[in-house]
């Protein structure tokens, strides 16, 4: 009896444990469970511990409520121009109502795939191959709209539809590659021709500008050369004029000095006669002189000169008395300071003109635009030639 009681106790404990296990359902986060009671839908639970009525309630299915990404195999689609292309589709969706996903459709994955293929064939069938390849965004929007409208009654929300790949036939792909290659070569040829044309235009413009600048440079060089020649001629003329004037002044001053020296020395006719007789042998030593004749009236001439400019003394002899020499004549007969006569220093104005000409000659061959304008303004409005004033050394001569 004790053995039977122990067995019954164990069986009772096992039954209680089994009932407890059947009464508790643990639903992880991100999943939802559809609960049925006696075969009818009761409720949907998610994320936590759920109590069930044993042997009455049961979990019909567990649904993943996270967003899912499903990639379908390539589908053969015929375009408007009767070309078959293989298109891969990637659909991103999420189950919002697990009960509709269980009771509304047998297999929602298959349903999404079939609706995607049907919609894709409908959309691509109205496009050419080129439009299909360049209208991915349009196809994606239309597929998403059609799938969202068709699967809303299944409790699904289509968040994104993407065309993963569009593979045309190999022959068409080869033809397209050849066409793209020809198009690229065409564009490259056009761009090369455009570049060559632009290069030729730029080269021609550069040569034109170079010729213009060269002509402008030659023009300004000729103008500056003529201006320099004119200034040189003016300066030479001024120098010659000054030299002649100074030479005339020097000769006049020399004559004045000689005259003053003669007056200041108080020469007598006897000295002049002696000097005359002393110079006669030197005159006779000339190569062309073979015979000299002294006039017999020479003594009479000296006598007449003495009577004219001399006075007769008490003894009856005519004696020459020099005239009175005033202070001005004595001052004239004195030696002058001649240190500044041999100065080799250049005139400041001439030195400035030479420095300006040297600066112009040392300028670069290709001047800047503002320098060309400055030269042009100087040529059009040249500065007046420097004038030189001749210093009059002796106010008496002037």
UniProtKB/TrEMBL annotation:
It is a single-pass membrane protein. Its main location: membrane. Keywords: Membrane, Transmembrane, Transmembrane helix. Transmembrane segments: none annotated. Signal peptide: none annotated. GO terms for cellular component: plasma membrane; side of membrane. It is found in: Membrane. Residues 361-398 are annotated as: Disordered. InterPro entries: Band7/mec-2_domain, Band_7, Band_7/SPFH_dom_sf, Band_7/stomatin-like_CS, Stomatin_HflK_fam. Residues 365-381 have a biased composition (Basic and acidic residues). The keyword Transmembrane helix applies. Residues 22-180 form the Band domain. It comes from the Bacteria. PROSITE patterns: BAND_7. Belongs to the band 7/mec-2 family. This is Band 7 domain-containing protein.
